[in-house]
Design a protein that fits this description.
Blueprint (H helix, E strand, L loop, with lengths): L3 H25 L3 H22 L11 H7 L8 H23 L6 H23 L4
Helix pairs in contact: 1-2, 1-5, 2-4, 2-5, 3-4, 4-5
């Protein structure tokens, strides 16, 4: 049986893999809708991985930002500004997920770059925080 930490680390590893491969390639190859979807996956997996590591159950929804900012502050030390930014990013990418998936909106190069940078921010913040937790 795997521990919460092991399950959380697995989610973070998946987020890192998607970020380094799928998301980067989608941006580089100008597949903007796919880039937005992959950025959303990175953020969702990062948030849920961190929540799992600290032993908090997460909702089975795409936008876990509100739960993350409410609950993780009790266990880890994030700057308030970072928590607000993480919640904003999670919300916008979760809202963009369906339109990007179903082609209801054509996302732009700027959208994909913003999604990439936002995913990088969330993944970095969470990686730093989870490394500080004792195993």
């Amino acid at each position: 049986m795997t521990t919460n930490r092991e399950q959380g680390e697995k989610l973070l590893k998946e987020a890192q893999w998607i970020f380094e491969r799928d998301l980067k390639i989608a941006v580089d190859e100008e597949n903007y809708n796919l880039a937005v979807r992959r950025a959303q996956e990175v953020v969702e997996l990062s948030l849920k991985g961190c929540l799992r590591i600290v032993g908090i159950d997460f909702p089975k929804v795409h936008d876990a930002g509100y739960v993350f900012t409410k609950e993780v502050g009790k266990k880890l030390v994030f700057k308030e500004r970072s928590l607000k930014e993480i919640e904003r990013i999670s919300k916008w990418l979760a809202e963009a997920r369906a339109p990007s998936f179903y082609g209801e909106r054509d996302f732009t190069k700027e959208d994909s770059r913003m999604a990439y940078n936002d995913a990088a921010f969330v993944l970095s913040e969470i990686t730093i925080q989870t490394r500080s937790i004792e195993k």
